[in-house]
Every structure is written in structure tokens, then in C-alpha cells.
Write a structure and sequence with these properties.
Number of helices: 16
Number of domains: 2
CATH superfamily of the largest domain: Clc chloride channel
Number of strands: 0
Strand content: under 5%
CATH topology of the largest domain: Clc chloride channel
Largest sheet: none
Order of helices and strands: HHHHHHHHHHHHHHHH
Shape: globular
CATH architecture of the largest domain: Orthogonal Bundle
Length: about 425
């Protein structure tokens, strides 16, 4: 890992803003918020037409199969959409996205997938879109490759904050998801925070939601030394869970290699529909369902089915190439595991268990210790920061060999001039 002193990193970020990058950063954050609001609005409208809340399970099975066929057709005619993994690679190698034309298929394909009840969320497609927006702005302004990278990360931060409602955590998440050992593009830290705040403000103004948490956790009282030990244990368990998730997805991908790409899309829809007939928790990415988990009213058996169903649904659609992200589903599985642990160990704090499990599982897969910690604690309560940070650090260390986003790597030098962007 390349180490840069905190003082020089901060000064570098401030110099970037003073040298003419301030206005582009604000522009990218603002445009990212606008684009995020439009995406989320379209997603809600489409969910009302093809979402699982409005149809019987058998009808939804047919819808999901049809969506798989539609995505196969869209990508066949318009080309593959790429993914966040490709964007991460391009940020390291080129500074930003390489082809804006991928959005022509990514946006409609991802909207169809997520709206129809996919067990993956809109975070990955939206972040890929807003990150590409940052690249477009930087390229049009003829900025240096380093500035292209900074503005691309700003766009990603704005996309994350639209969905998480946690500006600081979203900025760190956008920076950390590029690496396996913590953020290393320190010069983008302050710009990413500014871009995230701009995107958050625009989205709040347009959605009229107000500043409130996406999920409402119970009051957790005063933390004790026992909670710190519990957090470390949960970090270890979360790392194991991350290994199980990454291994399962890897095995499914290898098993599906002989199946043509279009067939995988259809197979993913059919399999997800069948899982949905078994349990409704297999459908959707879990943002709304998580409130049912947080309430603490579900029985242990129901929680176990919910966790297994979401795990299976997310693994299947991820392995078959459906468009979406797995961060919020991982939060759901973590919160469900925390509630299950509370059923067996009622003397332990429910909110501590859920928050630590959400953080640890996400960190184990995405390698975002600060970002995941801040996102969860901004929603569950900042006083949980000590325990969630312990869970995150333990999960990061123990899961060092777990690899799902294969393009995550150390800081990479850029060429002197940015390559021409296609599209």
C-alpha cells in the first residue's frame, strides 16, 4: 500500500479545488443528484407496473422471465452494459469510464431488472452512470487524467449518497471500493465529499424527503466493553459470510459458463421467480423489507428463511449477469443475521448486533471499512461508531483473501494525456 502523509494528502486535495477544480466538482455533484433523482423516480414508476408487490407469484415468475428475455434483447442490440468492476478498472488505468455508449443499454436494462424484483439494487448501475457522468464532464473540459479520475470519483460519490442518504459515508465508499486495502487516491477525498454533499442536497430538494434515515433502528443505550468484544466476533463471522457469498457466486458463474449470455439472463429471471414463489424475501433488493427486520417482530424461522432467500436470490442474479448491486442486499442479510443472533442471545443489544453484522458482511465483500462503517452509523446512530469500526477492521483483515470485485487494486499512475472517450 502506498502511504501518503495526511497533511500532504489534504493539501493536495485543497490545491485541486483552488486550481480550478471546484466548479467542476460542484457541477458533477449537482448533475449526479439530478440524474440520481431521475433514475430513482423512473424506478418507482416502473416498479408500480412490473414489481412483485402488484402481482401473484406465478404472474411475477412470467414477468421476471420476460425481463430476462428483454435484457438479453437490449444487450444484444445495443451491446453489453459493462459494470462497476469495469469502471473500477478504467479508473485505475485511464482515470475514468472508457465508453459513454454503455449507458444506452445499462440504464434501461438495470431499470427493468431492479423494478421487476431483482434481488440486487440500483446502487451499482446508478454509480456507474454518475461516475461516467463525471468522466464526461472532465473530458469535455479537457482536464488532466488525474482530474478525470477525481471527477469520476465525485460522480460515484453523488450516486452512492442518493441511495444511502449518507453523504460522508458515500464519499469514502466511492474512494475505498477502488482498492482492497483502504482508499489510496487521497487527492480525491475533499472533492468527493463536496460532490457527495451537492448530490445529496439536490436529491433532497427534488424528492422532498427531508433529512431522515432510510432505516429506523431501536435506541441502543450506552455501549459497554462487552459490546466491543461482540463487535470483534461479529467481524470474524462477517468475514466468513463474505467468503461464503463470494465463493457461491464464483461457483455459480463457473457452472453457467457453457450457457450463452442471453440464456443466462432468462435463466436468472426464471430461477428468481421460482425462489420468489418459495419466499417473497428472495425478491427485491431489500431496502423496504429491511424495515420489517429492524422492527424485531419476525420469528426466528421467518428470519432464517429471509436470510437464505435473499442470499440465494442475490447470488443467482449476480451470477447470471442481471444488472444491479449487492451492497443493500448484503446489508439486509447482515441485519437479518443480527436479529437471529438476538433471538438466541437476548441479553445482547439488537441494534449493535444488526449494525455490526451489516458492516462486517459488506466490508468482507467490498473492502470498504470506513465507507461501510459511516454509511451504517449515519443511519443507525453515530454513537455506534466504535463497535461498527471494530467489526469492519476485523472483517477486512480476516477476509483479505476474499475477492469478488477482481479489479480492486493499489494506486496506479496515469498516462500524461487522457485517451479519447467513445460515445
Amino acid at each position: 500500500m502506498i502511504r501518503i502523509p495526511a497533511r500532504s494528502a489534504t493539501n493536495s486535495a485543497m490545491v485541486r479545488l483552488r486550481s480550478g477544480l471546484g466548479i467542476p466538482v460542484i457541477a458533477v455533484g449537482t448533475l449526479g443528484g439530478l440524474l440520481g433523482a431521475a433514475y430513482v423516480g423512473a424506478l418507482h414508476l416502473l416498479s408500480g407496473l412490473i414489481g412483485p408487490d402488484h402481482h401473484a407469484p406465478l404472474v411475477q415468475l412470467c414477468i421476471l422471465a420476460g425481463v430476462g428475455a428483454a435484457v438479453a434483447l437490449v444487450t444484444t442490440l445495443g451491446g453489453e452494459t459493462g459494470n462497476v468492476e469495469l469502471l473500477v478498472d478504467n479508473i485505475h488505468v485511464l482515470g475514468g469510464a472508457s465508453d459513454v455508449r454503455r449507458l444506452r443499454t445499462l440504464i434501461p436494462a438495470s431499470l427493468l431488472c431492479v423494478a421487476s424484483g431483482s434481488a440486487m439494487g440500483p446502487e451499482a448501475p446508478l454509480v456507474q452512470t454518475t461516475g461516467t457522468l463525471g468522466t464526461v464532464v472532465a473530458t469535455r473540459l479537457r482536464r488532466s487524467p488525474t482530474d478525470v479520475r477525481i471527477l469520476t470519483i465525485c460522480g460515484m460519490a453523488a450516486g452512492f449518497t442518493v441511495l444511502f442518504g449518507a453523504p460522508l459515508g458515500s464519499a469514502f465508499f466511492a474512494l475505498e471500493i477502488l482498492h482492497r486495502r483502504g482508499l489510496q487516491y487521497y487527492e480525491a477525498l475533499i472533492p468527493a465529499i463536496v460532490g457527495s454533499l451537492c448530490g445529496y442536497g439536490v436529491y433532497l430538494a427534488l424528492s422532498d424527503l427531508g433529512i431522515d434515515s432510510v432505516w429506523h433502528f431501536a435506541r441502543f443505550g450506552v455501549l459497554s466493553s462487552r459490546d466491543l468484544s461482540v463487535a470483534a466476533i461479529i467481524g470474524l463471522i462477517g468475514a466468513i459470510g463474505a467468503w461464503v457469498f463470494a465463493t457461491t457466486v464464483g461457483l455459480l458463474r463457473r457452472a453457467l459458463r457453457p450457457v450463452p449470455t442471453w440464456g443466462r439472463y432468462v435463466l436468472g429471471g426464471v430461477t428468481l421467480g421460482l425462489l420468489g414463489m418459495w419466499s417473497p424475501f428472495a425478491l427485491t433488493f431489500g431496502e423496504v423489507q429491511l424495515n420489517e427486520i429492524v422492527d424485531g417482530r419476525l420469528a426466528l424461522g421467518t428470519l432464517a428463511v429471509a436470510a437464505v432467500a435473499k442470499f440465494a436470490g442475490t447470488s443467482v442474479v449476480l451470477a447470471t449477469g442481471w444488472k444491479g448491486g449487492f451492497i443493500i442486499p448484503l446489508f439486509f442479510i447482515g441485519a437479518t443475521a443480527g436479529q437471529m443472533a438476538h433471538h438466541e442471545l437476548p441479553m445482547l443489544n439488537t441494534t449493535v448486533l444488526m449494525a455490526c453484522a451489516m458492516t462486517a458482511l459488506c466490508v468482507g465483500v467490498t473492502k470498504t471499512p470506513v465507507g461501510s462503517t459511516l454509511v451504517v452509523t449515519e443511519m443507525a446512530g453515530l454513537a455506534l461508531l466504535p463497535v461498527t469500526m471494530i467489526a469492519a477492521v476485523v472483517a477486512l483483515v480476516v477476509s483479505s483473501r476474499v475477492e469478488l470485485i477482481e479489479t480492486q487494486r493499489a494506486r496506479n499512475p496515469l498516462p500524461a494525456a487522457p485517451p479519447p472517450m467513445q460515445g
